[in-house]
Amino acid sequence: LPKKKKNLYYSYEELQATNPICDHAWRIWEREIRSMDKANMPYSNRQQWGACLFVAGMELDGLSLTFTQFLKVVGLSLVRKMDVNVDTISPKVNIALKRLENKYDVTLALYQRFVKTCEKISAEPDKMEDDLVIAFQLLLCVLEFFTKRFAPSLLLSPYKSAVSSSTLSPPTRTSRRNQGKAKTRPPEMDVQLLETLCKESDCSVDEVKNVYQMTFCAFLDSVGLSGLQGLPPLETLSKQYEELYHKNKDFDARLFLVDDETLSPSKTKVSKVEMTPRKNLSGDDVAIPVPQTPIRAAMNSIHQLRVDLTSASDQPSSNLLAYYKNCTVDPSEEIRKRVEELGQVFVERFAQAVGQHCEGLGRKRFNLGAQLYYKVMESMLKSVSLNKTFNHIITFHTSLLACALEVVMATYVGKWSSDSVETDLCFPWILDVFQLPAFDFYKVIESFIKAEPTLKHDMMKHLEQCEHVIMESLAWKMDSPLFDLLKQSREEGPGEQAEPPATLNQPLHHNHTAADLYLSPVRPSRQPPATESEPPAPGTKALRSNSLSLFYKKLYRMAYLRLKTLFSHLLTSHPELEPIIWTLLQHTLQNEYELMRDRHLDQLIMSAMYAICKVKNVDLRFKTIVTAYKEMPNTNQETFKRVLIREGQYDSIIVFYNLVFMQKLKTNILQYSNHHTSSCLCRVFFFFRSF
Asked: To which CATH superfamily is domain 479-523+541-691 assigned?
């Protein structure tokens, strides 16, 4: 390394970094850190250089230290490290950091709950990966395992009476002759103690019992604690954790026990997390809402969902069965078989994502989804008269069940999960499970929200966000049925006309039901009509346009809002450009919709903005557009860093603009040129550091 590097910071041997890692880190340093405002830099050069080494090490897969070891060498806490924003980090590093942050949030919430629960259990305080709800249920299993081994005199009520009324079963005695053949006896579960723990935590007893029997018992068996009657040796547990910690190379959660600064959250964060709403003692006082702990928020949401579904069943009600019998062909058996088949698929995929011992949990979550599915279906039948063939539409039933399951899964994930962090079970996971096109799923969302009055505000927002994700990208995947409908619509005549910009700021009002959207439009038939001379039924064309028309009305509103937001950050001094950019964008979505295939709406918005500014001689660089875009809500750096160029080839958005967008729309863009010449459309070759 150059002498300057060693003198300014510290020996790279401290971080066990190789020369290639140091060279790459130095390039990151020179490109980004030195360009920062040094007067307002919150970290020392030493810490910034360490962060560059960490990023370089992760990009090159060359880290030998664990994350905790790295933090200690550099002198950073994990919480402060999460506030560092280095634009040049790759998606690989960005995803890894988000997963670390997610794991930290889960572990911190569990530890704080562990401390509070231990204080309630013990007369004296005890001295001794990504689903928060399942992790908390495992925590209750661990507390049951240890609490029943404490002397009752050390416990507080109600745990003291729960333990006193039960005794541990004696260990199984095996003769030496049959010692090698004997099976390990599963550990005894203290049902009364576990029920007490669940009651105090507002947690489902059935779910925790399932976790205990299917997951926790398997864990105890794997670490040799199944037949243990006393407390397990601390040294043994610590050694086993040490091996796992070094294997994963992440943070050492044992440091929570000693209040280590590398894992200690700020006082502000702790105060927000630890406070829990309390009942008002005075009837005259107004209760002040207090932020809930992540676990309390999750438990409350799950409890409320179960309360809302108390009267619902995971089988069709008598009202539904009566309706089915009035259909041309009774669909009840067909629906039952489909729900059963999809349930099996869901449980298998849930176990693959969470763990093979979690099939029982997957089944319970699916049953909740089935209850909600039948409840919403019956509500839809009460609110609108559906076509009698409607109940035979497979995509409708699959979409409705998927939407119900998405509500259940999102309830279990809860608001504790950062918006920027994706877990394995987050949307659009359910679409992949059922192999359901996003465009078909989109059709049921609005009707689902209207048909379920008990749906909470945050869950409505979640489903609306799912709808936005579908409109901006998921509906435009390569094999989406949306493209078939667009092609059919183009063959029939002009597409959906854009509304005047003034109306795009107003709420969209329509009377379309789920029946309208699923019964029309349909995929173009590959078979000729039975009678070629038979004229189409009156109103057929109007019916077939309902789904596509509504989709585009919503798409235009979302696109216009996104454009206005980005415009307000960049071009307030050129208000005359907004309608021009919008006209180009609307033309692209309506007539050049193939540009959206396997791409993102925001990619077209940024490209349209850059193109118009270019021909209008307004100085606006792509780097400036991208910088402003990153400040907008619900954005991802992948949107501008990885854009489809051609099949199998991806590059930055500037390459997409040069090779695809500008080439396709050159003639149209030139219409807005001040001089109407092609000189304004020169290709962009400059390099900017945001990529």
From this structure: Cyclin-like (1.10.472.10)
Q: CATH code for 3-94?
A: 1.10.472
- Tell me the β-bridge partners of 155: 122
Task: Evaluate whether 407 touches 455 at the Cβ level (below 8 Å).
Answer: yes
- 143, 553, 582, 623 from 606: Cα distances, Å: 53, 21, 11, 11
CB atoms within 10 A of CB 103: 19
- Domain range annotation of the chain: 3-94, 479-523+541-691
SS3 percent helix, strand, coil of the chain, rounded to 5, is 60, 0, 35
Q: 419: helix, coil or strand?
A: coil
Neighbours of 331 (CB within 10 A): 20
Decide if 616 contacts 674 (C-beta within 8 A). yes
CA 382/CA 447 separation, integer angstroms: 13
| Dihedral sign (CA 345, 348, 352, 355) | positive
CA distance 550 to 496: 9
Q: What is the mean pLDDT of the chain?
A: 76
Calpha distance 408→412 (Å, rounded): 6
- In DSSP terms, which residues pair with 650 in a beta bridge? 644
Structure token pair of residue 159: 């745990």
Q: One-letter amino acid identity for 167?
A: T
**In a 10 Å sphere around its CB, with 0-12 CB exposed, 13-18 middle and 19+ buried, how is residue 617 labelled?**
exposed
Residues 6 or more apart from 234 whose CB is under 8 A from it? Answer: 128
Nearest CA among 359, 365, 363, 372 for reference residue 314: 372
Q: What is the pLDDT of residues 146-196, one digit of tens each?
A: 888 888 888 888 888 777 666 544 434 444 444 444 444 455 677 888 888
Say yes or no: do domains 3-94 and 479-523+541-691 share a fold: yes
Q: Which amino acid makes up residue 151?
A: A
The end-to-end CA distance of the chain, in Å, is: 26
Radius of gyration of the chain (CA): 30
pTM over the 0.85 mark? no
**Contact yes or no for 444/399 (Cβ under 8 A):** yes
Cis? peptide before 453, omega within 30° of 0: no
Apex 431 CA angle, 430 and 434, nearest 5? 85
Torsion angle (degrees, nearest 10) of CA 400, 401, 404, 405: -140
Beta bridge partners of 651: 643
Residue 427 near residue 466 (C-beta atoms within 8 A): yes
- Which residue has 């995971």 as its token pair? 314
- DSSP readout, 605-630? HHHHHHHHHHHTT----HHHHHHHHH
Which residues are CB-contacts of 553 (< 8 A; sequence separation ≥ 6)? 496, 499, 508, 510
Alpha helices by DSSP H, listed for 545-600, are 546-570, 578-591
Residue 163 contacts residue 155 (beta carbons within 8 Å): yes
Looking at the DSSP bridge assignments, the partners of residue 122 are 155
Distance from C-alpha of 416 to C-alpha of 471, rounded to nearest angstrom:
26
- Residue pair 467/553 in contact by the 8 Å Cβ criterion: no
**In this predicted model, what pLDDT tens digit does every residue of 212-229 receive, in sequence order?**
888 888 888 888 888 777
**Cβ atoms of 118 and 256 closer than 8 Å:** no
Angle at 635 between CA 629 and CA 641, to 5 degrees: 75
- What's the pLDDT at 645? 95
Give the up-direction half-sphere exposure of residue 332: CA atoms within 13 A in the CB hemisphere: 14
Q: What is the pLDDT of residue 337?
A: 94
- Residue 106 near residue 273 (C-beta atoms within 8 A): no
